[in-house]
Design goal:
Blueprint (H helix, E strand, L loop, with lengths): L2 H6 L3 E4 L11 H7 L3 E4 L2 H13 L17 H22 L16 H14 L5 H4 L11 H11 L1
Parallel strand pairs: 1-2
Helix pairs in contact: 2-7
Length: about 160
């Protein structure tokens, strides 16, 4: 394979600020391990992780569906917006050979999910964990950031 061909077939992943809660799952590190070129948005907040990525040798990188939830209409509106954007971008850029993929992993144990559990538990007068446990997947647990890293790596 020529150098030009090798360069033109590199896979690229764009990571947005929406993935901030699952940074600890090392999505960027996993994708770099798999040979992807990374594009990161919201760079000021990602600076420490970028520094770690730069200093880490590359060789070391190693359904159940829920509907909407009350009091989270804006969150679910953004999920549907990402779905529409993914579909439209696929049509727009597919003719140039780009593949566009989006993912919505469901409940992933992040600080945000813990805060939501605390909020809803207080609101409903229930013990902590009641709300969050309603969203377990078919394996009987919520997702982990590492699960998302594996999924994204597989998709790209």
């Amino acid at each position: 394979m020529s150098q030009d061909t090798a360069e033109s077939t590199k896979r690229v992943a764009i990571i947005t600020g929406a993935a901030e809660g699952i940074w600890r799952g090392n999505i960027a590190l996993r994708l770099a391990k798999d040979g992807l070129v990374l594009g990161l948005f919201d760079l000021p907040r990602a600076e420490a992780r970028l520094q770690e990525l730069a200093e880490t040798p590359k060789k070391e990188y190693g359904t159940k569906e829920h509907g909407s939830i009350a009091l989270h209409s804006v969150y679910y509106a953004t999920k549907f917006a990402v779905r529409g954007l993914t579909q439209s971008a696929s049509m727009d850029y597919g003719r140039y050979g780009f593949t566009v993929k989006g993912y919505a992993p469901g409940a992933v144990e992040t600080p945000l999910l813990s805060e939501l559990d605390e909020y809803h538990s207080k609101l409903n007068g229930q013990p902590r964990g009641t709300w969050i446990n309603a969203f377990t997947n078919v394996l009987g647990r919520n997702g982990q950031p590492e699960d998302v890293a594996e999924l994204v790596s597989f998709l790209v």
